[in-house]
Description:
Number of strands: 5
Largest sheet: 3 strands, antiparallel
Number of domains: 2
Distance between the termini: 65 Å
Helix content: 40-55%
Strand order of the largest sheet: 3-5-4
Number of helices: 6
Amino acid sequence: MIREIRQGILFSLVAMALFGGVYPLVLWGIGAAAFRAQxxxxxxxxxxxxxxxxxxIAQAFRRPDYFQPRPSGVDDNAASAGGTNFGPSNPDHLKxxxxxxxxxxxxxxxxPGEVPAEMVTASGSGLDPDIPPAAALGQAAxxxxxxxxxxxxxxxxxxxxxxxxxxxxxxxxxxxxxxxxLALDVSFGAPPxxxxxxxxxxxxxxxx
Length: 208
C-alpha cells in the first residue's frame, strides 16, 4: 500500500516537472531561437525603435492619408475581440453594409461593384489586419491625392506589400494595412499637422 502511494507521488512529481516545467521551457526556447519575431507577438517598430503595434492586430485609420482596414464590430479594440454575429439576412447587417458601401463610394470614388465584400463586412474577430489587394488599390488614388504623390508610387507600395496565398493556393492574396501605412510614412514622410488643430496627424501606433 505504502509502495503504491510512493509510486503515485513520484509519478505526479515527475509529470509536473516534465509537463509543467521542462516541456514549456523547451517550447519557449525553440520559439525564441527559431521564431523570435512570432514568439514576441509579431511586433512592428519604426526606424527609431518606437513600438507601433502587432502585424496581427488591426488598428483604426480614418484619415485620408492612410489606408483603412476592414470594418470592426468592436471598434478595433483588441481588449474585446469579437464579431457582430449578424446573419446575412439580418436587417441591421444589410443596413450596415449599404452604409459602408455608400461611405466607400463617396470617399474613394469607386464603383460599388468593385468593392470587395471584406470592406463592407466586419471580420469574426473585429481585428483582421489584412485587406484584399483590390481593396488597397481602390484606396490608392485617395491616399496619393491626400499626400500629394503620384498614384503609381502608392500602387507600387501596394504591390510590394501584397502577400500571395499560402503555398500559392491556400487562402487569398492579402495586404497588411499597418505595414502598408508604415511604408507610406517611410516613403513619403508622416502627414503634416492638422490645419484645424495645429497637432500632428495620428500615425500608426499613436493613440486614437
